[in-house]
Amino acid sequence: MESKTATFDQRWVAIGARFAHRMRTVRSQRGLSQAQLGAMTGLTRFAVGDIESGARQARLPEAVFICEALGVGLGDMLGDVDPVLVVEQRIEFRPHAGGSR
Description:
By secondary structure, the chain is mainly alpha-helical. It has helices at residues 8-29, 34-41, 45-53, 60-70, 74-78, 83-88.
């Protein structure tokens, strides 16, 4: 019998996926390009794209800068996430192993 409790890794993936989705949605609603959001936060447009696509996760300071630039609270960006649902939908989010902004 499988456990219904999400593992730490599943929760990590779900939180990252939620942030990336909300970031892309809010950025688009604000009429900002990835390059414009990058300029507002000190990130490159490539870094913004990588975060939005799930190629990497935003570090906490980056997440705060992104939220400030978009005029959204960090809690609103993270929202309520059902990690089991995210994993069942096979949303892939690869944690970033390091590197620069």
